[in-house]
Amino acid sequence: MEIDNITQLSISVENSIRSVKITDIHTHLFSQYFGELFLYGIDELLTYHYLIAETFRMSDIPYEEFWGMSKKQQADLVWKTLFIDNTPISEACRSIITIFSSLGLDVNNKNLDYYRSYFESRNLKDYINEVFDIVGLKCVVMTNDPFDSNERAIWESGYAKDIRFKAALRVDVLLNSWDTACAKLSAWGYDVHPDLSGSTFNEIQRFLIHWIDTIEALYCAVSLPPDFAMGDGSVRSKIIENCIIPVCKAKKLPFALMIGVTRGVNPQLKLAGDSLGRADIHAIEYLCAKYPENKFLITMLSLENQHELIVTTRKFRNLMLFGCWWFMNNPAIIESLTKMRLELLGTSFIPQHSDCRVFEQLISKWTHSKAVISKVLVEEYSSLMASGFTLTDEQIARDIHNLFGGNFWRFVGDYES
């Protein structure tokens, strides 16, 4: 149906975003069949590293005392500090309120046990279904690390699949901590050597292929520091070119690069102590130009990298820009980046992923992101209509389907998903 005015346009966009089935292409979630690795509930939400960092800013509690607390005690302190003694106005705090509201809870109840009782009373299977329905999710992609002993044991013992939780093979240890990876690979029977000599590259390839097949990975992925470079003679670049690139090409999988994280800026904050830095875009240009038959997913952590990343994406059809990662995942930044991306890339990108670690964060991160993306789409479509172009509900539904899943599935080569 043709759209005649801005009111109809807003309704059409909102209806399409409300009904679209989302593919969340990068999370740190696990399905319930991973046991304790499946994180959910109020205590996990309140001890998320964003909220821990905020709590230390607003509290004078010593680091050692906080880390010596039980998770429940930590959650109690975070709740009192950020939600009782202060107004929960930050994005991380507001996300908790959005979760409560979406689940039908009283967002003004100050008793933390009220929320604990709710989460503890839920049937897990039904609850997972409910959250998927609230968000409008088709599936999520996990982050799967075979170097993690807890996760590895679950895969090797016969993982019971939930098809809504897809897998991605994480290779951070392999690329960022070669000494550790080499020792583990050797212990598992792979003929590898610290200096990469002999059969090392072939054995790394064998390891990668085994785990791609075992977990049915949709892509391989790595988080990289700001100084990531290619062609510098480093162990990392050699393994990428001699192992990751040929395996991904053979298996027809994209290689996802998430660039810009600086680990442990404040070690006393533990996981909350990581930060960011501006990276060099030339490493991406090098990979895309030298390996045109490979596909690369890309996101970067520094705001200063975003414009040149969009421009680079314009130049390479084998590069797919995705999401607003980590410190980029704030409404003000999502809005400006989505607008810039639409103006330079059309709809040929993936606007968002959740990066969730705790299950209920799917609700808040997608609720907030969908609202912002909807607003930007209405603005851009309005400009098109002002020039006399006729839009239809069908065109808008097609665009939103592509942005929230279709582009990803075409890029990975699964046209039926």
How would you briefly describe this protein structure?
The chain has 18 helices and 9 strands.
Structure explained in plain terms:
- The protein contains 18 helices and nine strands.
- The chain has helices at residues 6-19, 42-46, 49-58, 63-67, 71-84, 91-102, 112-121, 124-135, 149-156, 172-176, 178-187, 200-215, 235-251, 282-290, 306-315, 331-345, 361-386, 393-412, and strands spanning 22-24, 137-141, 165-170, 217-224, 255-259, 261-262, 275-276, 296-300, 319-321.
- Helix 12 (200-215) packs across helix 13 (235-251).
- The longest helix is centred in the C-terminal third of the chain and has 26 residues, at 361-386.
- The two termini are 26 Å apart.
- The model has no long low-confidence stretch (mean pLDDT 97).
What would the keywords be for this entry?
9 strands, TIM Barrel, 417 residues, globular, single chain
Strand order of the largest sheet: 1-2-3-4-5-8-9
- The gyration radius over C-alpha positions equals 22 Å
The CATH topology of the domain at 142-321 is what?
TIM Barrel
CATH architecture of the domain at 142-321: Alpha-Beta Barrel
Binned, the helix content reads 40-55%
Q: How many beta-strand segments? A: 9
What is the 3D shape? globular
Low-confidence parts, pLDDT < 50 over ≥5 residues?
none
Give me the number of helical elements. Answer: 18
CATH class type of the domain at 142-321: Alpha Beta
Note the topology:
Elements: H1 6-19, E1 22-24, H2 42-46, H3 49-58, H4 63-67, H5 71-84, H6 91-102, H7 112-121, H8 124-135, E2 137-141, H9 149-156, E3 165-170, H10 172-176, H11 178-187, H12 200-215, E4 217-224, H13 235-251, E5 255-259, E6 261-262, E7 275-276, H14 282-290, E8 296-300, H15 306-315, E9 319-321, H16 331-345, H17 361-386, H18 393-412
Parallel strand pairs: 1-2, 2-3, 3-4, 4-5, 5-8, 8-9
Antiparallel strand pairs: 6-7
Helix pairs in contact: 1-17, 1-18, 3-5, 6-17, 8-17, 12-13, 15-16, 16-17
